Amino acid sequence: MITLDGVMQGPGGPEEDPSGDFRYGGWVAPFDDEVYGKIMMKEMKLTDLLLGRKTFEIWADYWPSHEEIWPGISDVTKYVLSTTVDKSDWKNTVFLKSVEDIKKLKNSDGSDLKVWGSSKLVQLLLKNDLVDELWLKIHPVTLGKGKKLFADDATAAAFTLTESVATPSGVIIANYRRTGDVKTGTIGA
Asked: pLDDT per residue over 75-121, tens digit each?
């Protein structure tokens, strides 16, 4: 979930992530509609998760007592990149310490991994060319300030649009898959 200017912080509610004096928590709510809801249900299909520490802490405080909204979320493996936290009461949580741990996990046999939120983790994955696809929900709003999806040090990469829809509320939902290196050329040549 991102804004037109790339902010991804605190989409779910005012108290979700007010760090850095972020005042716009819950900015996604006005764009909820039936099409958006159906796509979210599809994306919430259970699979293992890779989360950054801050997102994990928010989720670990919320999801175990709200499983009626996302049944089975506690049953999937939650891999958490953190150098400061190494245990949790939320079942099926595994802590990773480094990019090397993520690379080993990515190259192992197992289910696909989804990343939700986790702006710094996504930036780290993009920097290390560890992103196979992006599901972007681009909301028609700019917030200016907040945690961003993309940093200046992402690895140059080409992606192909594989699926897209515009919701009645104006959200563009697009799935991009990694296809190789960036190609360049001259317009009109």
From this structure: 999 999 999 999 999 999 999 999 999 999 999 988 889 999 899 99
Tokens read off for 136? 């972007």
Please tell me the distance from the alpha carbon of residue 78 to that of residue 142, in angstroms, as a whole number. Answer: 31
Question: In the chain, where do the E strands start and end?
Answer: 2-3, 48-52, 78-81, 93-96, 113-114, 133-139, 158-166, 172-180
What's the order of all strands across the beta sheet hosting 158-166? 2-3, 133-139, 172-180, 158-166
In the chain, which residues have pLDDT < 70?
none
Q: For residues 181 and 156, is the Cβ–Cβ distance under 8 A? A: yes
Instruction: Give the per-residue pLDDT at 189.
Output: 75
Q: Is 92 left (phi over 0), alpha (psi -120 to 50) or beta?
A: left
**Cα(119)–Cα(124) distance, integer angstroms:** 9
